[in-house]
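LOG
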Amino acid sequence: MHKIAQAPPEAQNKRLTISKIVVVALYVVGVIGLSLPEYRDLFLQLTPAQLLLSLVILLGFHKGWSDAFPIFATAAFWIGFGAEVLGIHTGYLFGDYVYGATLGPKLWEVPIVIGVNWFLLVYLTGTVFYKVTDNDYYAALLGATAMTVIDYIMEPVAVALDFWYWKFDIIPAGNYFSWFGVAFLIHLIYRKANFDRENPLAIWMLMAMILFFTILNFTLGL
């Protein structure tokens, strides 16, 4: 593959700094908007756009554009999305739940951006942990554990904001075990795929997302 010409280090650093500011602004404004009842409906409509914008900004700093990367990205999207379709229609894996209208257009009763969310979370956690160990299984364990913790933080907020609803308003323990299992599988694919995993914006965006849902747990009184 041809090498892509890179901007001078000063320009790259400036671009990274600006992107960090944009990410912080994106999530801070989101927290404020979703915390204020008078603006909540508007910001709920913008939720899918926020997720897609996060993806675009993040991939702007991705360096490993080898042939393996789109294969991983496609697998991450469809495995995550497929697990959700199976969960919605059978009650297996995650339990009995249905999606609300907040996350936008649906395919087979599952919002399309859910596949994007699976890819994004695996990419972020995988990028953060990829230098920790050379053992693919241990790395997948770390990544899947991190994603399960994020899901635990996210669940109350998701229910409160019409992302999805659980039968009897009870989040089953099996949801977290299945979430871990699916995340572990996608993380293994991430580790086996041959592409450059370095992304200087990944840790910044991951922390912004975690703080976003953590703060909303308090501001929404959950």
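LOG (cont.) second protein
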Amino acid sequence: MAFIEKNADISSSTGLSEASASDYVALLKPRVMSLVVFTGFVGMMAAPGQINPVLAAIAILCIAVGAGASGALNMWYDSDIDAVMKRTSRRPIPAGRISRQEVLTFGLLLSAFSVVTLGLFVNHLSAFLLAFTIFFYAVIYTMWLKRTTPQNIVIGGAAGAFPPMIGWAAVTNSISMESVVLFLIIFLWTPPHFWALSLFMSDDYEKAKIPMMPNVAGPASTKFQIFLYTLLVAPVGILPWVMGFAGPVYGVFSAAMGVAFLSAAWTVWQAPVGDAMIKPAKKMFAFSIFYLFSLYAVLLGEILVSKALLVAGL
């Protein structure tokens, strides 16, 4: 807490912030935001019906801004542990380039802008889902779950899974089983993705006193749970084809990617605890990103081709 107090008014002596434009961009967690925007866009394109292109652009902008707001609020609250962890120590607050108060104000303004704009121009359901997503990530996950339970990623993963549902609701003003499946793919993917990371970053989490699964239940239990969750996400990844809102190309591709994901999880599970598990864990972490992105990319590709053929009358 001393760190928070020390950095709460980092620029009070001059009255000027040392933050650059790149610092404000960093607060938005652009890499995370890009995946959020992409999955939200796929949800929008997969939804039945039409949406005005201008409204679609507004919806995507609001999803992006809302995701950025969540990232900023996360960095505001977690600035103390960010300073301890090697991979986050150069973020704007712990690096001393911006105050916590500025980041809190920035995050709240972005949150209000994204939710109000989406509600006014698109529909209230999508705005509610966006508001709930920001609240869930900033309050439920960041302020509560992250520091109290090794299930933080399991429950908190819901925040990153809502964007395709928001995109779907922006078009249809409803929630359907199809949008729930798109949600479930990301929700079930999150634990093996982050637990693979935590296997080779456990020292960082230990220093920050974050109860990640390897630090609480041990690496052996974590590896087993990674495999169990991969067993769940692999068949769920095929459901868009089973339910008929994805085509055979997606069906074959998702099945093959599910097998590859399971293979990576099996390799991690079978690796001895210690240095021997680090390399397969890193490989699985990298592959998990490709897995999720490629599933949504192939689904989007099929949807765009289908729409193009429909327009062409073929």
